[in-house]
Amino acid sequence: MAFSSVGTNYGAPPIGEIFSISPETTERPKDVLEEIAETARAIDTEGHSRTEVLQEVGQLMVSSMVGIQLEVNPASREDILEAAGKSQKVQAFIKSMVDPLLSEKESWHMLRNGFLAEVAVSVFLERSGFKVLEPSQKDDMKGKIDRWAVDTAENKVYAIQIKASKDLIGAKLSKVDQNKASLGVMSGYRSAVQTMIKYVSRRQEFANKDVEFLIIELGAGEINEDAAFNQVTGVLTTEADNDLNDQLYEKVWNE
Amino acid sequence: MIARDPVGKTPKAITWEQALQEIAKGVSFRRYLEIMLAVALDDKTRKEFLLELNSSKARQN
After folding, report:
1. Is residue A6 part of a domain?
2. Nearest-neighbour CA in chain B from A136: distance (Å)
């Protein structure tokens, strides 16, 4: 059964249009982006560890870009382009803060893929009726939790891990099944899922909560033809959006 | 519901004077970053901020 009425792009064509937005479409004069970078370089991070700065900056980028997307009227091309322009400015700011903190093995593109995947999942879940919450630093570092989603109607909490890679294709949602030895997830994800389950089970604040665990995988990257989200806005492609919507219905709502 | 911040906070416009005042009062690191991002996103505020920053550097030298 299709569940298109809950789809995030129902009744409007623009998600396809959003996906056609590239850094070139929204290119800003170089001096504007340079000024934004200069503003970011003026930030004083003294007294904060590298991990803390990266974590806070990542949350800031995701939260800002989700906010920008949630205010877009999907039927207005003007709105969509304005949001893409703002998103590009946010990325210029965050890149300027992150660049000096990266090791030789890390790259902005790699980190950005992770942040944008979190934007994509958060916007999708918010538009599907969930209340999406940020993980605390502990949730993130110790519990490996990337997002919380609350289904207020069912009084259920979902702890979510988000995987983004250039080697992945499209969008895939897996619900953890604690009755199976495999946990119902790929072997490569099992250890991180066990960490998430242990973390939640040991914390008093979740003692009386109905918590389920999800893994959402998204294809990412500028040269990945099967990428699930736009590299400027973080919005899901129409296909990924429909796929995730069907999987949400089959694996989460129709259990 | 669990006690966590909601995701999806759009950067709200702020003047450079308001930004300075709020930072001077003492804010969390996250709020400080939010204020600076809001400053950076607004063309007028950003220009005023950079002018102020450069004149402050010039005064120090």
Report:
1. no
2. 7
Query: What is d(CA A160, CA A172) in angstroms, rounded to the nearest whole number?
Result: 13
Q: What is the ipTM of this complex?
A: 0.91
Tell me the per-residue pLDDT of A146-168, one tens digit each, with 9 for 90 and over.
999 999 888 899 999 999 988 88
Question: How many structural domains is chain A composed of?
Answer: 1
Residue range A62-92, pLDDT digits in tens? 999 999 999 998 888 999 999 999 999 999 9
Domain assignment of residue A234, given as a range: 14-253
Q: Is residue A179 included in any domain, yes or no?
A: yes
| CA–CA dist A24, A15 (Å, integer) | 18
Task: Confirm or reject contact between A148 and chain B (CB < 8 A).
Answer: yes
Å between B8 CA and nearest CA of chain A: 4
In a domain, A49, yes or no: yes
CB atoms within 10 A of CB A76: 13
What's chain B's average pLDDT?
89
Which residues in chain A touch residue B29, judged by CB atoms under 8 angstroms apart? 48, 52, 56
Q: Decide: pTM greater than 0.80.
A: yes
Chain A residues with CB under 8 Å of B52 CB are none
Domain ranges (residues) in chain B: 16-60
Structure tokens at A110: 């790699």
